[in-house]
Amino acid sequence: MPTYKAPVRDTEFILNEVIDIHQYSHLPGFTEATPELVSAILIEGAKFVEEVTQPLNQIGDEVGCTRNDDGSVSTPPGFKQAYDKLIDGGWGGLAADPDFGGQGLPHVIANAFEEYMISANMAFTMYIGLTQGAIASIAAVGSEKQKQTYIPKLVDGSWCGTMNLTEPHCGTDLGLLSTRAEPQADGSYAINGTKIFISSGDHDLTENIIHLVLAKMPDSPDSVRGISLFIVPKFLVNEDGSLGARNAVSCGSLEKKMGIHGNSTCVMNYDGATGYLIGEKEKGLRAMFIMMNAARLGVGLQGLAQSEVAYQNAAIYARERLQGRSLTGPKNAEGKADPIIVHPDVRRMLMNAKAFNEGARALMLWAALLVDLSQQASSDEEKQHAGDLVGLLTPMIKAYFTDKGYENATNAQQCLGGHGYIREWGLEQFVRDARIAMIYEGANGIQALDLVGRKLALNGGRALRAYMKLLRNYIAQHATTAGMNEFIEPLGHAVDDLQGSTTWLMKNALGNADHAGAASVPYLYTMALVSLGFMWARIAEAALGALASAASETEFYENKLRTARYFFSHMLPETTVHRMRVEAGSANLMAIDAAAF
Ligand SMILES: Cc1cc2nc3c(=O)[nH]c(=O)nc-3n(C[C@H](O)[C@H](O)[C@H](O)COP(=O)(O)OP(=O)(O)OC[C@H]3O[C@@H](n4cnc5c(N)ncnc54)[C@H](O)[C@@H]3O)c2cc1C
Description:
Layout (H helix, E strand, L loop, with lengths): L7 H11 L16 H19 L3 H7 L2 E2 L5 E2 L4 H10 L18 H14 L1 H20 L2 H12 L3 E6 L15 E4 L5 E11 L8 E9 L10 E7 L1 E3 L5 E4 L2 E6 L10 E14 L5 H37 L23 H33 L3 H36 L11 H9 L8 H12 L2 H21 L6 H24 L4 H36 L5 H18 L2 H10 L3 H4 L7
Parallel strand pairs: 3-6
Antiparallel strand pairs: 1-2, 4-5, 5-11, 6-7, 7-11, 8-9, 10-11
Helix pairs in contact: 1-2, 1-9, 2-5, 5-6, 5-8, 5-9, 6-7, 6-8, 8-9, 8-10, 8-11, 9-10, 9-15, 9-16, 10-11, 10-12, 10-13, 10-15, 12-15, 13-14, 14-15, 14-16, 14-17, 15-16, 15-17
The structure holds flavin-adenine dinucleotide.
């Protein structure tokens, strides 16, 4: 049976010693988030997922969701009870606005808990994950009445949210969307169309489901410029907030899929369903992007969380499985063989995952902190700076974390040999579950195009300039700090690779857009590795500081330095290869005629 132990000590180390969230204790939300409270939340959160949701992960995968004859959908055994416990414990509204019943804590705290939730049971966590995005969208563009009607119920978990973009002929290219919204005499709209692949489209966890649906009005342009956003509740809501008639939206079928079986992925039929415009007419994509941006960081977190749980199980196995002898002489002389963790190749797979997980956790929490600062910082300038960085980091975190999440889950499976391939050990489920995160919420190739084609140039390149300055300043400040040179020097080389790749793009991509397309993934990888390098330098700095002040837990800090060294010597140098790929341009990629493939 697979196991999971939430990495509470590591999260606390990052929050308290690396990104130091307590320096912001003067800001709203952070005032309440004292180290004691944060510690209590993490410990209780870890207990919750380890005892309640993780034990349901395998059964959720094996049994999956069921569409009943009446069209209703049942979640796997135990999910409803676990959901009720989650809501009773107030875990759904950690970062939500207190005006709507939330606890008003910083996103960075909610993000830390969400990682544990996903590692323990990704399919289950998706039911509440999208609800957070629905709350953000309604809060940003909804009318006062819509906010009062929907947000409190979404925050307290009595209702869930969904996000409806995809149609059979329309995935990445939303301009092709054909769901229609006909204005009705009472100001509502009749929604007609079919959406596919809708996560949590129907289920038995909550009394109502609030669908956010993209559709076009009859007089709108038949392109992305004609898309509006609508709220379509499963049950209509009466004036007094009670539930009214069943709306004409239903789950036509459940998709049969590779992983996340515990989450219902639905074909949703809108047969004249009553919908309400949210935000301005034809500004639907802008409103939906609020939901999608929140969801994109959440999907990046899925990559990290799956990598972590797969790694934990592979590490346990590698310490116990006896096969062969160490190349440098027996390490378990009394036994018939050594544990496989003595073999450098098994170590390679484990170290790649460990160095990614711990660096990515720091990067994820820093990004979540930036989300908080973009909303709560003291000055407009600080808000803008934080918002710019979030915009730049979001596509990178979504794509790189999920690519690595899948790769690390596969390598963890490899550590178990044939036992990784059979069901009992749970590794093959992690691989299957991790795979979807590379596809949904904008496939990873699209994230790379968003980074290179949009985010780099936005506001005259303001975000990238700010990030490069931050990196260069950090390098300059720590170049002569005792013990830091072994980390700062390679970080400097990687930043040079990022700078070189950017300069090449500026010179070449404007004249040939295929150069930008060809460079997009290696460029994104370069920026991701640089960002992890930045985090690993900060981790090493914190570890050196703790060791210098004769901290306890010496082994914990020494292991941070050992892992940092591995990252800088074995993983960061990849930036040079990615830079060469960027600079190779698109000619050889595009040379062969499509018919020859
Ligand atoms: C389990 C699951 C759950 C999902 N949940 C939801 C949900 O809750 N709500 C929702 O609305 N949707 C959901 N989706 C849909 C998902 O977001 C889409 O599958 C995804 O956006 C890709 O669209 P597509 O499948 O049509 O692929 P396509 O758009 O056909 O793309 C196919 C491939 O071509 C590439 N490609 C396409 N266009 C370009 C381009 N211009 N440049 C470069 N490459 C390009 C893509 O990167 C991709 O690799 C879900 C899907 C699954 C499988």
